[in-house]
Structures are given as structure tokens and as C-alpha cells.
Design goal:
The complex is a heterodimer. Chain A contains 18 helices and 12 strands. Chain A is of the alpha/beta class. In chain A, strands 3-4-5-6-9-10 form a 6-stranded parallel β-sheet. A two-stranded antiparallel sheet of chain A has the order 1-2. A two-stranded antiparallel sheet of chain A has the order 7-8. The termini of chain A are far apart. The relative contact order of chain A is 0.08. Chain B is of the alpha/beta class. Chain B folds into 2 domains: 2-125, no CATH class; 130-250, no CATH class. In chain B, 48% of the residues lie in helices and 14% in strands. Chain B contains 9 helices and 8 strands. In chain B, the strands form 2 sheets. A 5-stranded mixed β-sheet of chain B has the order 4-5-6-7-8, covered by helices on one side. In chain B, a hairpin with a 4-residue loop joins strand 6 (171-175) and strand 7. Chain B starts with a strand and ends in a 13-residue tail after the last helix. Chains A and B meet through helix 1, strand 1, strand 2, helix 2 and helix 13 of A and helix 5, strand 4, helix 6, helix 8 and helix 9 of B.
Chain lengths: 533, 251
């Protein structure tokens, strides 16, 4: 007994260590009550159970089934040509670990990925065995996230999707070129094919259950004039020649909404990102692949991957700009209806001419900015074109994307909090989705003042430059790009006061200014914020 | 000023509210305090209130009927808080609640509403974190046992979640600050019971055992962190140190 545990511990160490670079450790998106005779339930908000030493959440038992791999992707630690310890779990071991950890409230479920062993289809079958045993033998109702292995047979993929909560295919690199350089055994089409298959299966099975084909999104997002998830975009696509049917491709998925959006960010088709149109909606669901199978005894009917699908991209291994990453992200949300796109800062592990040198620090700030922008797309009704452009392809180091957008678009400000619409409230830096909703609810019954806003969760430190309340600003700040930028960059209150009450100047600093002939002026601040200095 | 001293429980607070309202010297001249958490004042009359099921029932029913079910849940959560001002805050909130009805929860510009909203949010957040951070250990008799030391009285809020999650397990969640436990038998409903600390210790002593899965969990916990991204500040923000007292991976 004891020796079995030692062996299991060693396997767990190897295979969790190999899986740790995968980022999507979330357990959100599906609500499922528990049931007598089974174990587990699931909460749509997701539950993190612990936080590792890197501050990332541990929600699921994130492991590889095996780290044997027939591929030789350059960025990957488990590539064929690396000399690392290899191990493989049996399906029963994975089930036991999941159930036993789950009972002790260590985890929310299982996140199963795998190296490609023998062939993609064989690997996917192994994964299927694990998930089947978990659901049917152990009667597990917790969360299961499964990686779809590109190249695996569609039939296996469909079966896994009916048991798992979320599926994901890793895009890894945003362009086909980078993929060719770093992952010679993969190609763009083989990755996008399962993605579009999963999308279609999700849509078909959701519709057969009387839900909308597209996934649920955050409150209010589907009604935003400029957002990615507006209903009319999707409606236009559906009401093609053959009316309200999913089957039959009514042409391409028309990108772009009304175009009368707040920021006039005219909807464009993503230029030059090489993202082909997916198969038309529902194309994979014909021929009775079993998206609506009759419920077996004692089992619920469930939709295909009810928590949607996700993907991840590596940041910093290849020369793509933030603009490029965001346009790809946007295309994935629009065309593939992904629930999430994850970013993973590249950590130099392998030595290769095509890669950054090993030991170079991971681009954590860049990853952070991309996530911030991703939130703006999913919750705030922004589009990627509004945040970045070909001319300014990268995010600011000093300012977050929302602040940066605001200081560049002062024509929309100041916003009158008592009367502005919800969409405009969301665009004010310092007002988030929750506080915007609280303001929206409270202002109907009476006037607000600045302390009220603070109590509702507004970060006045950032918001006060951009809002008026009953026609008055909190402090008399002139709406000038350089002053606001300087104020936002330096949150120091005294400095903010000085900036709003006099000329733009800085405290003397012994080290920074040694080589400068003259004191930095207003333009220098602006340049520094714009990343030109 | 009349100060009503009520017992620290939902019934106690509701009875206090009933009596304060019934005596009606005007809301401005009444205050509610808790028996074991108050500072005596010189120019005040004190009245001790004994909890009364009938009265607290009436208050609970009026909140649900005249305000809303959500308001009742907010009030309950606020009552589970550990702040000494909670009884009075609930009283002030109900004054506004009976005036405005169901929409009162949106009126965050009213100080009384904002106060109860903040109390309730704090308790709800702590309860959610306990859903995350409770760690069961498996005892020799198969019982899953978890100890917690929460600031608020979260046991009533977390137990339903685990009852739903583990319907066929025997489990105990023990709040060692309030010496109170939620106990669930396989296939049955959960109950709460007062259990003194020494009894709980004796129970653990009798059935405690070493558990290999805890070692496996520690292995997993340590190998899943990426060394190149180490960030203890971020870890502490999400998982404050005071929660770690009972967590397997930090023991």
C-alpha cells in the first residue's frame, strides 16, 4: 500500500510539474446542483481552492495523463527531443486522485490534458476513458475541463464533449507563421478544425435544449452598441436565406455590428491576422452524432460542453504585437464564440535559436495588459481596434488600457454620472461593471454625491478626472491629456494636486535627471506615457 | 436615549427590534446593542431583552412580506457579522426598508442601507472564501472533519453548499471560535450543534489518522507553482495568511 503511494506521488509530481504551464485553471460557467447517490456540484462563479506560490489560482487538479509526446514543439518542456522524466497515469489513478482530493475540498474538479502518445486519437480515447469513469463509475458531478487534442477523430471528441464541462484547444501562437516555426508538427488548420467542431456542437446542443446558440455573456454585454456579443450580429448571420435554422451554411459569418458605436470604432474584418472563417454554424451536427441522446437511467440530459470552450496563446515567444494578439482574440470570440482566451507569458525553458534565450524574464506586465484588454472586450463593450492600431501596436507600460483609451478620447468626457447611459459609465476609468450597475440602480431614486460613489466601489482616484456629479467635478481639474496622464501615472495625491494647480513639473531627482539638459516638460510626460520615450 | 440590549443571535436581534419598535419612543431615541459587546454610557436607560421566538418570527415574516426575500437574506448575513454595531445597523436598515419596500436594496445612497450592505457583503465574501479554503481531513471512521476559525459566523452559510456537494458523506465543519459545528450524516439533512472545544479535541484524538492523500496534495501544491513567476504578495492578496491556519498545504 505504502509503496503504491510513493510511486503515485512521483507520478503526480512529474505530471503536475509538466502541466503547470497551462493557464486555464478556472472552474466557472456551469451551475449544477448535487444529487443523492452522486458526489459533487458546480457553481457558475467558479471556486478557487488555493493559490500557489506564483499567486495563480488552483481550482482544478491540473495534470497531464502522460508527458510522453510524439511532437517536438520548440517552446514545450515535454517535446520529444528533451530529456525529461516521463510518466503516465492509468485512468483509474486519475479518477481516484480526483475523487479523493475533491472529498477533502482541495479541488473543484479535474483539468486533464496530455502529451500526444502514439496518436492524437489514441490519446483522446485514453482521456475519454478517464472522463467516462469519473462520470459513470464514480458518479462525479463536479467540474471537468478537457483539452481536445488537435488531429483526434471527431467521434471521440463528440463523446468527450458530452461528459466534460469545458473543452479547450490551445491555439499556442497567434499566427500561422509562428506556429510553423515553433511547432513544426502542428498547423493552423488542424487546430482550428476541432475548435469549430466544438463550437458547432455546443450551438446545436444548446438549441436543442431551447437555449440560444451563443453562450451566455456578462450582464448587459449583449445589448451594447459596439460590443462583440451583440445579438444583431448573430441574428443577421442566422436569418440568412434558409431562415432560422442552424443547418446549412448561409454564407460567411458577417463581422461587424451597427457601426454606430460610441467610439466610432467602425467594425472591420480583422485584417491580416490569417484567421480563416470557421465552418458554418451547425455544420458538424448533422447525421445524428448524438448531441441529443435520450437520457439514460439516473443521468441528466446535458448539453455539449456547457461551460463553453477556451484557448490559450503564448505571449512573448514570437514577435507578434499586442495589436495582433488582441485582433486574434477578438476574432476568436466573434467567430468561434469562445468563453475565454487565456494568455501565458513565455518562460524560457528550452534552448533554441527561434526562441528567446532561456532564463530571460517572462513578460508578466505584457500578459497583465493583455488580460486587462481581454476584460474590456468581454465586460465593457470595447473592441480591439479602439484600444490599439497598426500605428500604436503595443500597450502602454505605465497606463492600463482603459485609462489610456480615456485620455486619448477626452471628447467623450466628462461624463455626468447621474444621466450617462450604462455603456458610457462602463467606459470611465475607475468604474467597473459592479459599481456601474449599483450607480444605475441607485440614481433612479435620488441624487448621489462623491462619498456615495466611493461606497459603491468607484475608484475615485482614477474616476474623478472623467466624471461630473450634478454638473460639478470633484476637484477643479482641467481636461487636458498631459495633466490627466501625469495624474494617473502618479497616484501620489500631493503630486496630483500640484499637477492640477500649476504647471507640469517634477520633483528634483538625483539620479534620473543627471544627463538631462533641461527639465522635462509636458510633452515629455505625454511621450513617456505613449511609450515613445 | 434608551438602549435595548439583545442577545447575540438572529432571534435575539429580531426580538430587540420588535420591542424597540413596539415601545416607540421615536427611532431617534432608541438604540440596539449586544449584551456582550457594548460600552456602558452614563445618560442612557438600559433594557435587557430576552429572545422570544414569537416576536422574532413576526419580524422575520414582515421583512419577507413587506420588503423582500433578498432583503431578509441580506439582514441575516449582516446579523452573522462580528461587528458590534450590527444590531443597530439592522434596525436602521429596517426603518428605511419598511418605508421604501423592495427597492430599498438599491438605495445605496441611504447611509443605513449602505451600512447593512457593507456588513452583508463582508460576511458573504468571507463565507465564499471558506467554501474555497475549508479543508476536510478524513478520520479513521470515515468522517470528513474540518476546523475553521472564521471572523463572522459563516457556518450557516457554508453548510448548505457542502450538504449539496457531499450528500452521501458524513462530515463535520467545526467553528472553533464559536465552538459550534455543522454536522451532516450521509443521506440526511445537516444540523448545527454547540460542541465545546475539549469534546471536539477528544473526538479528533479518538479517530485521527494520517492520510496519504494529504501528502499527495502537498506534493501537487508545491509542484504546480512556477518558480520563475514567484509572487508571494499576489498569493497573500488572494489567500490571506489568517486563513492558512487550518489549510493542509500550509501545515
Amino acid at each position: 500500500m505504502r509503496s503504491g503511494f510513493v510511486e503515485l506521488e512521483e507520478k503526480l509530481r512529474i505530471l503536475s510539474d509538466a502541466a503547470k504551464y497551462d493557464v486555464a485553471c478556472t472552474s466557472s460557467g456551469v451551475d449544477r446542483a448535487g444529487k443523492k447517490g452522486s458526489i459533487g456540484n458546480s457553481m457558475a462563479a467558479g471556486i478557487c481552492h488555493s493559490f500557489a506560490s506564483d499567486g495563480r489560482c488552483i481550482s482544478l487538479l491540473k495534470i497531464l495523463l502522460t508527458n510522453h509526446c510524439i511532437y517536438d514543439c520548440k517552446y514545450c518542456l515535454n517535446r520529444r527531443s528533451n530529456d525529461v522524466k516521463r510518466a503516465a497515469f492509468t485512468p483509474d489513478e486519475v479518477c481516484t486522485l480526483t475523487i479523493e482530493f475533491y472529498r477533502r475540498n482541495h479541488i473543484e474538479g479535474l483539468f486533464l490534458s496530455s502529451g500526444v502518445f502514439r496518436s492524437p486519437t489514441y490519446t483522446m480515447e485514453q482521456i475519454y476513458e478517464v472522463v467516462w469513469k469519473l462520470r459513470r463509475v464514480h458518479r462525479f458531478r463536479g467540474y471537468v475541463h478537457v483539452k481536445a487534442i488537435p488531429g483526434a477523430d471527431d467521434a471521440v471528441l463528440d463523446e468527450v464533449g458530452l461528459l466534460a464541462d469545458r473543452m479547450s484547444v490551445n491555439l499556442e501562437l497567434p499566427t500561422a507563421d509562428s506556429l510553423r516555426t515553433l511547432a513544426p508538427h502542428k498547423n493552423r488548420d488542424s487546430i482550428l478544425k476541432p475548435m469549430s467542431r466544438i463550437r458547432n456542437q455546443i450551438a446545436a446542443s444548446r438549441q436543442s435544449m431551447g437555449q440560444t446558440a451563443r453562450l451566455e455573456r456578462a450582464w448587459g454585454v449583449k445589448g451594447m452598441s459596439n460590443g462583440l456579443f451583440t445579438e444583431d450580429e448573430y441574428q443577421r448571420r442566422l436569418e440568412g436565406e434558409d431562415g432560422f435554422r442552424l443547418e446549412g451554411g448561409g454564407g460567411v459569418f458577417i463581422p461587424g455590428g451597427s457601426g454606430s458605436g460610441i467610439a466610432g470604432g467602425s467594425p472591420v474584418s480583422e485584417p491580416g491576422i490569417g484567421m480563416p472563417e470557421p465552418e458554418p454554424w451547425g455544420a458538424g451536427s448533422r447525421g445524428g452524432t448524438g448531441v441529443l441522446r435520450p437520457p439514460e437511467r439516473g443521468l441528466d440530459i446535458r448539453t455539449f460542453a456547457p461551460a463553453g470552450q477556451s484557448t490559450q496563446m503564448i505571449v512573448g515567444a514570437t514577435p507578434e504585437s499586442d495589436y495582433h494578439m488582441m485582433m486574434v482574440t477578438q476574432a476568436l470570440y466573434r467567430q468561434y464564440d469562445l468563453k475565454r482566451v487565456f494568455f501565458s507569458a513565455y518562460i524560457g525553458l528550452n534552448e533554441d535559436a527561434a526562441l528567446p534565450a532561456p532564463g530571460s524574464p517572462p513578460p508578466l506586465l505584457r500578459e497583465h495588459r493583455l488580460y486587462q484588454a481581454d476584460w474590456l472586450l468581454r465586460f465593457y463593450g470595447f473592441r480591439a481596434e479602439e484600444l490599439l492600431s497598426e500605428e500604436r501596436p503595443n500597450f502602454n507600460v505605465l497606463l492600463d488600457p482603459k485609462c489610456e483609451w480615456a485620455v486619448r478620447h477626452l471628447e467623450y468626457f466628462p461624463v455626468e454620472v447621474m444621466s450617462a447611459d450604462y455603456e458610457m459609465l462602463l467606459r470611465v476609468p475607475g468604474i467597473g461593471a459592479k459599481s456601474a450597475r449599483r450607480i444605475y440602480n441607485a440614481r433612479r431614486f435620488g441624487s448621489l454625491d462623491f462619498p456615495d460613489l466611493k461606497r459603491m466601489g468607484v475608484v475615485l482616484k482614477r474616476a474623478h478626472y472623467f466624471i461630473t456629479l450634478g454638473g460639478k467635478q470633484m476637484f477643479p481639474v482641467r481636461l487636458e491629456e498631459n495633466r490627466i496622464t501625469a495624474g494617473l501615472i502618479d497616484d501620489n495625491r500631493k503630486k496630483n494636486w500640484e499637477l492640477s494647480h500649476g504647471e507640469c513639473y517634477r520633483q528634483l531627482n538625483l539620479f534620473d535627471d543627471m544627463k538631462l539638459q533641461e527639465a522635462p516638460g509636458a510633452e515629455d510626460f505625454q511621450k513617456a506615457a505613449a511609450g515613445q520615450l | 436615549m434608551r438602549i435595548f440590549l439583545c442577545e447575540d443571535s438572529l432571534e435575539g436581534i429580531f426580538t430587540g427590534i420588535y420591542d424597540a419598535w413596539a415601545q416607540d419612543p421615536g427611532h431617534g431615541h432608541v438604540r440596539l446593542s449586544l449584551k456582550d459587546q457594548y460600552e456602558p454610557e452614563l445618560f442612557a436607560e438600559y433594557e435587557e431583552i430576552e429572545p422570544d421566538d414569537g416576536k422574532s418570527e413576526k419580524v422575520a415574516r414582515s421583512i419577507q412580506r413587506k420588503i423582500s426575500g433578498e432583503a431578509f437574506r441580506v439582514v441575516c448575513r449582516a446579523a452573522f457579522s462580528a461587528r458590534p454595531e450590527r444590531a443597530d445597523a439592522i434596525y436602521r436598515f429596517l426603518i428605511e426598508g419598511f418605508r421604501y419596500g423592495g427597492r430599498v436594496l438599491r438605495l445605496l445612497q441611504e447611509p443605513a442601507v449602505a451600512e447593512v450592505f457593507a456588513l452583508s457583503r463582508k460576511v458573504a465574501n468571507e463565507a465564499h472564501q471558506y467554501l474555497e479554503f475549508i479543508r476536510f481531513e478524513q478520520l479513521a471512521n470515515g468522517v470528513l472533519f474540518a476546523s475553521i476559525s472564521p471572523k463572522s459566523r459563516v457556518i450557516m452559510l457554508v453548510a448548505p453548499h457542502f450538504a449539496d456537494r457531499f450528500p452521501d458523506e458524513n462530515w463535520v465543519i467545526y467553528d472553533d471560535v464559536r465552538e459550534e459545528a455543522a454536522i451532516h450524516g450521509a443521506g440526511e439533512d445537516w444540523i448545527t450543534a454547540k460542541i465545546p472545544k475539549d469534546q471536539a479535541d477528544a473526538f479528533l484524538e479518538a479517530y485521527g489518522s494520517s492520510d496519504h492523500y494529504e501528502d499527495l496534495w502537498k506534493t501537487f501544491f508545491h509542484s504546480i507553482g512556477i518558480r520563475e513567476r514567484e509572487n508571494p504578495n499576489c498569493q497573500r492578496n488572494f489567500l490571506p495568511v489568517w486563513y492558512r491556519k487550518h489549510m493542509t498545504e500550509f501545515l
